[in-house]
Design a protein that fits this description.
Radius of gyration: 17 Å
Largest sheet: 5 strands, antiparallel
Structural class: alpha+beta
Strand content: 25-35%
Mean pLDDT: 89
Helix content: 10-25%
Distance between the termini: 20 Å
């Protein structure tokens, strides 16, 4: 297989939901470029797509799905798999603050403020993205580090990996502000994680 296009909401397997984002992520690990196409992105972007978003470079709405677009985005996926991701897909180690934890159906959602990104927006992720050994420590006010692609323009394009628990910044966040300025000026490679 040279490439694939997957829809997101697939039939259940043994009674468990099967998602195209999970399939795209598995293909990513096999170095096969794949696109996710779904009309449910506004509903699923926070939870079931976010679970695998670090390995789902492109999510398209069906109305964006045409031959020129498909070729362009498959090429973008292929470049990322070769270690050349676009700027908006490069992750940086940033500080997160938990604002809320709540049950959403059978899942638990965690609402976060993402350092070095848009602090006026709260971003929702599934608790299952965070290592299970940390779950008991995740509540409103918890501080974490994670690798996040903070140069993404839209919150649905953010992904999260490599979580670490930490304490509240003691310097009022001054060091973090300096780091954020360095990231956006192109000098902030100290904590960048560019392994793909």
């Amino acid at each position: 297989t040279q490439a694939a296009v997957c829809t997101h909401r697939l039939n259940a397997l043994d009674g468990k939901p099967l998602y195209g984002a999970q399939l795209v992520a598995a293909l990513y690990d096999l170095k096969i470029p794949a696109l996710l196409v779904t009309q449910y992105s506004d509903i699923d972007k926070h939870m079931s797509i976010r679970k695998w978003k670090d390995k789902v470079p492109v999510v398209l709405h069906p109305r964006e799905f045409e031959s020129g677009t498909v070729q362009e985005y498959l090429e973008e996926c292929a470049m990322e798999l070769q270690g050349q991701p676009p700027v908006h897909r490069i992750p940086y180690r940033v500080l997160l603050r938990v604002h809320n934890v709540e049950s959403v159906g059978e899942e638990t959602a965690v609402d976060l403020e993402v350092g070095c990104w848009d602090h006026y927006q709260i971003v929702r992720i599934p608790l299952s993205l965070i290592p299970e050994r940390m779950h008991a420590d995740i509540w409103c006010g918890t501080w974490l580090y994670a690798h996040v692609n903070i140069k993404a323009e839209y919150q649905e394009d953010l992904y999260f990996r490599n979580f670490e628990l930490t304490s509240e910044p003691e310097d009022g966040g001054d060091e973090i502000l300096v780091y954020c300025e360095e990231v956006y000026s192109g000098e902030g490679e100290l904590f960048a994680s560019t392994t793909f």
